[in-house]
Amino acid sequence: MKHQIARILLQVSFLAVVTAGAGVAAHGQSLSTHVRAEIPFDFTVGDKKFPAGKYSVGRAQSGSDDTLLEISSVDGSLSAFQLTSEDLSLARKGSDTLVFHQYGDRYFLYEVWPAGGNVGRTLRVSRSERAVKQDMAKNKIATQMRTVAVTGGAQ
């Protein structure tokens, strides 16, 4: 009987270690810990404009997954929520990274990549961004869309 209890305790301990290890591996790829960066330009999330400054991006609710993200100023004065989809990269990101689409002097948040992971989140293209692209095409403006990455970390 003592051997059976000892074996069960050993199995439970092993499962606890495996589960904790899996949580640590997934943690580096999730947005349960917010991505932080200082954005040096004004930008748009969805249809909301944000001034240059320090921002935090993470799960909208702590107990949820990364599908709905909250983008907020570090001081808490501005925020927006956005639905996202999962994106995979072959290379792991060395630091928190926010990727923007740039059209002339207009920037739109497009992707969020937490440090240490190869799983990021892609935001849907907003009506504002589609309107900028349509306006450029209509007016035959030669400015092309560029991708701009801003790296950050805990600030």
Approximate strand percentage: 35-45%
Radius of gyration: 20 Å
Number of DSSP E strands: 10
Which geometry do the CA atoms define? globular
Strand order of the largest sheet: 1-4-5-6-9-8-7-10
What helical percentage do the residues reach?
10-25%
Question: Spans with pLDDT under 50 lasting ≥5 residues?
Answer: 8-28
Largest sheet: 8 strands, antiparallel
Mean pLDDT: 82
Put simply, the count of helices is 2
Order of helices and strands: HEEEEEEEEEHE
Describe this structure in words.
By secondary structure, this protein is α+β, with helices and mostly antiparallel strands. The protein has one domain (31-152). Helix content is 25%, strand content 40%. The chain contains two helices and ten strands, in the order αβββββββββαβ. It has an eight-stranded antiparallel beta sheet. Strands 2-3 form a two-stranded antiparallel sheet. β5 and β6 form a beta hairpin. The termini are far apart. The model is unreliable at 8-28 (pLDDT under 50).
Essential attributes:
alpha+beta; 2 helices; two-stranded antiparallel sheet; 155 residues; 8-stranded antiparallel beta sheet
